[in-house]
Amino acid sequence: MKTMVTWTLKSGELAEAARRFISGEAGPHEDLKLLGRWHSVDMSIGFSLFEGDNPVAHYASAAKWADIMDFKTHIVIEDSEAGPIIASAAKR
Questions:
Q1: What is the chain's pLDDT, residue by residue, as a tens digit (92 residues)?
Q2: Domain of 17: which CATH number?
């Protein structure tokens, strides 16, 4: 299962986020595979795409950063998976 996590920094937490990131604390939980991570150029939001089937791993990962970031986690599928379902629904 793929999950897209979006995150935003809480006000005043840039320095602490940078410290943790540079020191290597931003790695994925052992039960999650990080497929990609992106940062908006205005530094207002970030995106991380994970693969894994353990929701507890997402919770544990978020807990490490919850003091300085807000998260939203979405289960996602690709166009190739969504297309046949949408096509079928459109025929109804």
A1: 999 999 999 999 999 999 999 999 999 999 999 999 999 999 999 999 999 999 999 999 999 999 999 999 999 999 999 999 999 888 87
A2: 3.30.70
Count of beta carbons in the 10 Å neighbourhood of residue 6: 15
Q: Where are the alpha helices (DSSP H) in 23-78?
A: 55-65
Place of tokens 């999650």: 32
User: What is d(CA 83, CA 32) in angstroms, rounded to the nearest whole number?
Assistant: 26
The total domain count for the chain is 1
Q: How far is CA 23 from CA 53, 73, 89, in A?
A: 27, 24, 48
* Per-residue model confidence (pLDDT) at position 89: 86
Closest alpha carbon to 49 in 4, 87, 92, 8: 4
SS3 at position 30:
coil
Domain that holds residue 78: 2-90
